[in-house]
Predict the 3D structure of the following.
Amino acid sequence: MINSNGNLISGFNEIPEEFIKNLHTHLSVLEVLRYENKTILFWELHYFRIITVLRRLRFEIPMNYTMEYLKEEVVKLMNIQLSNENSALITIQFIPYQDSIGFLMSFIKVKSFYKIEPLENYIVDLFKEGSIQSNNLSNISTTNTTLFNIAKKYAKENGFDDCVILNDQKKLTETIQGSLYLLQDDKILTPALKSGCQDFALRSAFNEWLENKQKLFTLIKKEISPFELQKSNEIMVLSLKHGYQGISHYRKSTYISNQLKELFNSFIQDIC
């Protein structure tokens, strides 16, 4: 089932031909949400990210694209498709259409944050065949899609579970799978937005929680050298799809993830 501009349809053949053409040929904006316990997690953060990106890309935003309207459209789709215990990842794609914007909403069922088991062995390396620009355009998820797709193939070909993406200043940004966090004693390091990492809603929510709801660690958002990976006690990747994932191996370094996993579990208990 798909929500196309407010209409629930069962297949792409029911979508207007012009809209399909624009889907293939025009610049679009993507946002991925997590639906958990009949709730869109971090919906306010997602909404403001959507509107900010649409404005930066010079889209004409319809007046009815309020927070309440778009939320209702997501809930309409989910209520038909999911039982109470199901979780889902919802993709919203905004596309130029008839001098305005249209949208497509689709979803896949996934495990709940509570039921995801992180991989014990999670091997990463640096991706050096390309880099992203260290500016705020790289914060937008569609900006570096091609580079990320190449990096995914590189990781698969070389037996890595993930790769860390560098920017044009040779600094860390994020991994293929999500936001990057490094634990060093009582400090947690994460790349600043000016490094070029994507400003995911989950990243924003987790950072706010670290700064305001826990007192064990100090969050530091800054430009991070790759050498900091080998100086860290623990490293984790954070994503809507997988939740917490600890890194076990980076080159000759081995990590045992305990504190960051417990920290993420506390975060989830607070928000869900």
About this structure: The domain at 123-271 is CATH 3.20.10.10 (D-amino Acid Aminotransferase; Chain A, domain 2). The chain has a mean pLDDT of 92. The helical segments are 17-25, 43-56, 67-81, 145-157, 201-212, 227-231, 259-271. The radius of gyration is 19 Å.
